[in-house]
Amino acid sequence: MLRPSAKGRSGLVVHNHLRERAEKQIAEDVRRGLSARRKSLPSKYFYDERGSRLFERICGLPEYYQTRIEMSILRDHAAILTESFDNGDLVELGSGANWKIRRLLESMGRSRRSQTRYVPVDVSQTALVAASKELLKLYPELNVMGIVGDFTKHLPQLPCGRMKLILFFGSTIGNLSIGESRTFLTEVASTLCSDDRFLLGLDMIKPMEVLNAAYNDSQGVTEQFNKNVLCVVNRELGADFNTDDFEHLAFYNQDQERVEMHLRAICPLQVEIADLDLTVTFEAGETILTEISRKFSRDSAARMVQESGLSIARWHADPNDWFSIAEIVSRNDRRSY
After folding, report:
1. Is 297 within 8 Å of 204 (Cβ atoms)?
2. d(CA 87, CA 81)
3. DSSP for 244-285?
4. What is the pLDDT, as a whole number, of residue 98?
5. 180 and 116 in one domain?
6. Exposure string for 97-126, b = 16+ CB within 10 A, e = fewer
7. Does the pLDDT at position 92 exceed 90?
8. Per-residue DSSP letters for 192-251?
9. Where in the sequence is the domain holding 202, given as residue range(s)?
10. Is residue 321 part of a domain?
11. pTM (2 d.p.)
12. What's the CA gap between 170 and 69, in Å, rounded?
């Protein structure tokens, strides 16, 4: 655990809730996913140190509109999004780099920041610590309590006793299936008290050609990112995947309103996963589903939220309605917006 700095209240402390189960969890996930009739690997395993760097590059690509538009919404609406938030915990799920949180922290001013505890939650301790240290250089008055964990499992580990503004940006909710989203949002609902709010980033339905281009960039960075999951399995479980045996495949599935990312075997092959004592056979053209990214309308997002016992109080969007940040409260919240 990293301890707070000695200079008063501000500083950094990190709690790692993954260390004890990380090895066992990836073994269970890989065995289950690659033994299934339709093979898959969880997208959370993209994000080792290399994968996190690749994703940062993706966020700056011209085809990848999501980060650029979401940042513009945060810039334009930061003061509204942080209004009435004081002396509380600013919780960011799947925090990654610190670009987005800086928009909100800037809008709060030094006095309010000094009373704020920032709580980033991320599966990568390396990325979390690096981003937190950067923030503390910019805002030395801030207090940071990092949680290394899986936001789908570790919400009960969030600190209690203070007002919370929970942030879930990047439309990461779209990487969860319908059932997983319902379970996750129900868990969020159970953590919200009457004064708490939840900001949810949502990638909206838009022209298919825009969506397909965003996941098939001309520089091939998304392909490297996609194949990185095989590198993680090789390193963690002693597998012998050759990334050259697979090609990147990403497309918008209109019937299910989601982008799918796959790795497709370019020839028949066998892969040995030593730590699992498992041989995985692939036919030519067979795929591993590595990520889904669901896209939303306002109606479908509202239904998803309401089914979990929550309510959308306000929408914040770009002029084209390509991306939205939904401001969500408990259904019992009686505040006027």
Report:
1. yes
2. 15
3. GGEEEEEEEETTTTEEEEEEEESS-EEEEEGGGTEEEEE-TT
4. 85
5. yes
6. bbebbbbbbbbbeeebbbebbbbbbbbbbe
7. yes
8. --TT-EEEEEEEBP--HHHHHHHTS-TT-HHHHHHHHHHHHHHHHH-B---GGGEEEEEE
9. 11-20+57-207+297-328
10. yes
11. 0.90
12. 10
**DSSP-based three-state secondary structure for 12:** strand
On whether both 63 and 144 belong to a single domain, the answer is yes
Residue that is written with structure tokens 């940042």 in the block = 71
Query: Based on the domain organization, do 85 and 140 belong to the same domain?
Result: yes
Residue corresponding to tokens 């600013």: 90
Give, in order, the Cα–Cα distances in Å from 161 to each of 55, 69, 191, 192, 233.
Answer: 34, 34, 11, 11, 39
Residues 168 and 313 in one domain: yes
Q: Is residue 132 located within the same domain as residue 276?
A: no
Residue type, 52: S
Cα-trace Rg, the chain: 20
* Cα separation, 130 vs 162, whole angstroms: 26
Q: Which two tokens stand for residue 76?
A: 């334009």
pLDDT per residue as tens digits for the range 151-188: 888 788 888 889 999 999 999 999 999 999 999 999 99
| 201 and 230 in a common domain | no
